[in-house]
Amino acid sequence: MLPRRNTRQITVGDDDHGFVTIGGDAPVSVQSMTAGYTYEIDQCIAEINRLDKAGADIVRVAVPEKKDTEALPEILAQVKVPIVADVHFHFQRALEAIEAGVHKIRLNPGNINDRDQVAKVIDACKERSIPIRIGVNEGSIIERKDKQKRMEELGKFFSDSKHGHLLAIMIAKLEEYLEIFEERDFHDICISAKSIDPQIVIDAYTEISKRFDYPLHLGVTHAGPREVGLIRSVVPLGHLLASGIGDTVRISYANDPVLEVEDAVEMLCILGLRERVGAELIACPACGRIQVDLFKLVQDVRRKLNEEIHLPIKVAVMGCVVNGPGEAEGADVAIFAGDRRGIIYVQGQRVANIPEEQILDRLLEECRIFQQRVLNGQATLGQKTVDIIPPDPIGELGSGIEKVLAGQVDQVPSGESARSVNLPIADASDAS
């Protein structure tokens, strides 16, 4: 991880909804957007609260019509997270949203470019100390109303270097728009430069980070359903964040926005940019060595952990004795399985050897006990107490136990490596 890029800071929120700082040394925040109509007040409130519960620091709502901005006061009175008004096409919606008490405005240079109109929004935001996000999405920066101008821009866009010309247009539009803000001495600004192309996203934010010291809102636009949008989003956003670029993020799906928040939070936790809330689950991939119904077990464990564990306990669910011992050493609570059985370790200490049908209940019981010990100050997260000696692959968990019992091979003495077993040459490959 490279050091975080040093930027200006902006603050979003108020006493009733909390304050979120974006930029500088502030933690990277997670944003999402409601999928329903803002004027449907009860549904909008319910969706905002779901996103808040999932881990969103800031929630954006669309205000394309006056009935949307008229709904804002009632919405703001019933939620506890800062709200951003997403404004397109009509600057008056921004003024109405500001009057209603929203905490941030999102403007699109491709849709609202009249200098006088933008100036009115800037002045209203400046009066109330409300930040503005300038979003230069790929889909909205090319001229669409003036067909002749559009043809000229598209001619450049599709000439020698499509990628290079698009970056030039995005940065030029951004610089032109920022002039209006600088003329009015307004600097509570956040910038975004989204595209569907992950490489353009990386290059655009990298170039913008060199030219401006404003905080950056990272995102990939119209990324698609979660199945493809997750990869399309996490690859460029993770790259930028690991490079020290980015101050707030939104992952965008054509799906339930709660999934956007969950995946963005997980990305930040994995990068060490957000403190985890709840258990971290790691598990084996598909493998021919698995000797229990691992995939069902993992899903059952994940569901139960989400319901019952709120501390960042690291839980490992491993399907065989090959990788299991190593993962158990690094996990707070771990299970690794053998032939329809499993051994459970708590911070490196073996606590149970149980049949497959008891694994889920016993593993969850050990997680609950360990969580309470941490809360009582009797244990510390991430502190293993003993080293784990890998069990004999043909021993108590291995499928080779039948050969041992039949006298075909010798059992490994306690504490010795499986490699020291005295195997007849004819049986060695079968028992490995």
Structural account:
Helices cover 42% and strands 16% of the residues. The protein has three domains: 10-270, TIM Barrel (Alpha-Beta Barrel); 280-375, 2-Layer Sandwich (Sulfite Reductase Hemoprotein, domain 1); 401-431, no CATH class. Helix 2 links the parallel strand 4 (58-62) and strand 5 (83-86). With 432 residues, it is an alpha/beta fold. The strands form three sheets. Strands 8-7-6-5-4-3-10-9 form an eight-stranded parallel sheet. Strands 11-12-13-14-15 form a five-stranded mixed sheet, sandwiched between helices. It has helices at residues 41-54, 66-76, 91-100, 115-128, 138-141, 147-157, 162-183, 198-211, 226-242, 257-270, 294-308, 324-330, 359-375, 401-405, 425-431, and strands at 10-14, 18-22, 29-33, 58-62, 83-86, 104-107, 132-135, 189-192, 217-219, 248-250, 280-283, 314-318, 333-337, 341-346, 349-355.
Map the helices and strands.
Elements: E1 10-14, E2 18-22, E3 29-33, H1 41-54, E4 58-62, H2 66-76, E5 83-86, H3 91-100, E6 104-107, H4 115-128, E7 132-135, H5 138-141, H6 147-157, H7 162-183, E8 189-192, H8 198-211, E9 217-219, H9 226-242, E10 248-250, H10 257-270, E11 280-283, H11 294-308, E12 314-318, H12 324-330, E13 333-337, E14 341-346, E15 349-355, H13 359-375, H14 401-405, H15 425-431
Helix pairs in contact: 1-2, 2-3, 3-4, 7-8, 8-9, 9-10, 11-13
Structural class estimated from helices and strands: alpha/beta
Strand content: 15-25%
> What is the fold named in CATH at topology level of the largest domain?
TIM Barrel
Shape: elongated
Mean of residue pLDDT?
84
Biggest sheet layout: 8 strands, parallel
End-to-end Cα distance, whole Å, is: 40 Å
Number of domains: 3
Low-confidence residue ranges: 157-161, 409-432
The radius of gyration computed from the alpha-carbon positions, rounded to a whole number of angstroms, is: 27 Å
**Strand tally, please?**
15
